[in-house]
Every structure is written in structure tokens, then in C-alpha cells.
Amino acid sequence: MTAKQLTKDPYNIIITGVGGQGNVMASRVLASMLVNNGYVVTIGETFGASQRGGSVMSHLRVSNRGSWSPQIPKGKADVVVALEPSEAIRVLCDYGNPQVKMLSNTRPIHPVGVIAGELDYPSMEETRKSADDLAAEVWFIDATDQAVKLGNPILGNIIMLGALSALGDLPVSIQDFKDVIQKSISENTHDINLAAFDLGEKLIQQ
């Protein structure tokens, strides 16, 4: 299959969140969708101190020309997809630029320091203001809340993938998602995952 030309090559995607949110699974599914469409995708991942609850960041570099270094250079992200809102700001501070787009879940996950009263967690208003200052275009969606309504909060990662596809920068669709999950996850979860992806698309289109 011959890939369509990218608006930028490589096109640099960061998917970020905290352990337990399905960040790595989302990055692998997205990469598979892109590879199936003829792209070369290089993935790099970083993990915080705790496997569950620590920061997790996946770098995806998408190209028609070949593989690239797995780490996106500072200031060179094209889109940041955040499963946790404070992680969105942290990543934008390092990898953002005047053209970067940001898509974030609204549900916070408080680190231990905040729970213990040793650190402050930014309000959603502060997070939105920071995002507007750091990114060219910003979308916040209630992915976790919508996933809970579907029956499983972990589906927030799939809702975010559906939302990313609806931005229109990447040639991926719900059919591409269906093709990937048919080969990678249990058949009895196909319908709910497809519903989550479709919901993510609709949240952006609305």
C-alpha cells in the first residue's frame, strides 16, 4: 500500500498520561493503523518512577520516507494527545511550539504528593489557560467520564484515539481501527471498543 503524503514528514505525535491509563496500548494501536496505511512509524517510550501512577509518554514519528530517531526533539511535536490534563501541560512545555495541536482528557489523576497535601494540582481553568498559551489549537474532552458511561474507564484511551482521528491530520478511520483490533484484542470486546472510538470522533465533530 502506498501512503498518502504527510503535511509534514516526519509527523510527530506524543501520547502522554500516567501508568494504568492504557497509554502504551493506544500508541501501539495507532501505530498499527498507520503502518497498515503504508507509513513507517518509529515509537519511543518513557516511563516514570512508578509503573502505575507514574508519567508515561509515547513518541510516534510517522513518515513516508523511512525510520527516524525514536525520540522527538524538544519543541518539535505536531500533536500532543494527553490522557491526563496536567501531563498535557508538562509535555507542551518541553515539546510544544507555536504550531502544535493539543487534545486532552479532562479527568485529573492526582499524584501522591497532591493526595498527601505536599503539592498543589492546577485547577481545570489554569490548565485550559496554560494550554491556550502553549498550543495553537486545543481540544478538551471528557473521555474518562464518557468511558465510565460505556462501562469501563480504561476505554478513555480509545475515545481519545477516535478524537485524534477526527482532527483530520492523520489518514486513519474507524475502519482502520476495526482492522487492527480484530487481530489484537478479544472478540468479545470489539463492539465496545468500536463504540468508544466512534464516540471520540463524535465528541470532536460536535
Please tag this protein with its features:
206 residues, alpha/beta, Pyruvate-ferredoxin Oxidoreductase, domain 3, six-stranded mixed beta sheet, 8 helices, globular
Write the layout of secondary structure elements.
Blueprint: E1 11-18, H1 23-36, E2 40-47, E3 55-63, E4 79-82, H2 85-95, E5 101-105, H3 112-115, H4 124-134, E6 137-141, H5 143-150, H6 156-166, H7 174-184, H8 190-205
Parallel strand pairs: 1-4, 4-5, 5-6
Antiparallel strand pairs: 1-3, 2-3
Question: How would you describe what is shown here?
Answer:
This protein is globular. The chain contains 8 helices and 6 strands. It has a 6-stranded mixed beta sheet with strand order 2-3-1-4-5-6, sandwiched between helices. The mean pLDDT is 91. 42% of the residues lie in helices and 19% in strands. It starts with 10 loop residues before the first strand and ends with a helix. It has one domain (11-205): Pyruvate-ferredoxin Oxidoreductase, domain 3 (3-Layer(aba) Sandwich), CATH 3.40.920. Helix 2 (85-95) links the parallel strand 4 and strand 5. With 206 residues, the chain is α/β, with parallel strands linked by helices.
Summarize the model shown.
The chain is an alpha/beta fold.
Strand % is: 15-25%
Strand order of the largest sheet: 2-3-1-4-5-6
Structural class: alpha/beta
> What's the N-to-C terminus distance?
32 Å
Separate helix tally? 8
CATH superfamily: Pyruvate-ferredoxin oxidoreductase, PFOR, domain III
Report the C-alpha radius of gyration, rounded.
16 Å
Oligomer: single chain
- The residue fraction in helices comes out at 40-55%
Number of E-type strands: 6
Query: What is the CATH domain class?
Result: Alpha Beta
Major sheet, described briefly? 6 strands, mixed
Do you know the CATH architecture? 3-Layer(aba) Sandwich
CATH third-tier fold name: Pyruvate-ferredoxin Oxidoreductase, domain 3
Q: Give average pLDDT, whole number.
A: 91
Overall geometry: globular
Q: How many domain units?
A: 1
Poorly predicted tracts of residues: none
